[in-house]
């Protein structure tokens, strides 16, 4: 009798929605990338910080960060979820605004990104790195 194939565990971090969440998410990503042998984690830290900050400022409930390598091409994928119903939107350019550019910047630096609704409520915002 053969054992069923094991699916790899997805590294996951659950954070309180407070101003410490982005820092903890960056550290989590840096440690995971190092474990995967990814030496350049700058873009990953930038993306996870933006997504976690948005979840903290505009979402609800605990923030869940998940990291995994796409099984098709091996590229890192970052997922950040919360229980809020709001949907992140890239803002129109407003040169007078003092905030609101992070998602636009992130969208230009990744291979792809999107939002997925969760059946139990809330959403996952994901980004696939180059």
Q: State the fourth-level CATH superfamily.
A: Histidine kinase-like ATPase, C-terminal domain
Query: Which range does the strand content fall in?
Result: 15-25%
Chain-averaged pLDDT: 91
CATH class: Alpha Beta
First and last CA, distance: 41 Å
Shape: globular
Low-confidence stretches: none
Radius of gyration: 15 Å
- Please report the number of helical segments: 3
* Helix and strand pattern: EHHEEHEE
CATH topology: Heat Shock Protein 90
Give the tally of β-strands.
5
Quick one: biggest sheet?
A: 5 strands, antiparallel
Can you name the CATH architecture? 2-Layer Sandwich
Computed structural class: alpha+beta
Total individual domains: 1
Q: Helical amount among residues, as a percent range?
A: 25-40%
Strand order of the largest sheet: 1-2-3-5-4
Organism: Actinomadura nitritigenes
Pfam families: HATPase_c_2 (PF13581)
GO molecular function: ATP binding
Domain Histidine kinase/HSP90-like ATPase: 23-127
Could you explain the architecture of this structure?
GO terms for molecular function: ATP binding. This is ATP-binding protein. InterPro entries: Anti-sigma-factor_SerPK (IPR050267), HATPase_C_sf (IPR036890), HATPase_dom (IPR003594). Keywords: ATP-binding, Kinase, Nucleotide-binding, Serine/threonine-protein kinase, Transferase. The protein is of the alpha+beta class. It has one domain (about 10-130): Heat Shock Protein 90 (2-Layer Sandwich), CATH 3.30.565. The chain is built from 3 helices and 5 strands. The protein has a 5-stranded antiparallel sheet with strand order 1-2-3-5-4, covered by helices on one side. A hairpin with a 6-residue loop joins strand 2 and strand 3. Helix 1 packs antiparallel against helix 2 and helix 2 (about 40-60) runs antiparallel to helix 3. It is globular and about 40 Å long. The termini are far apart.
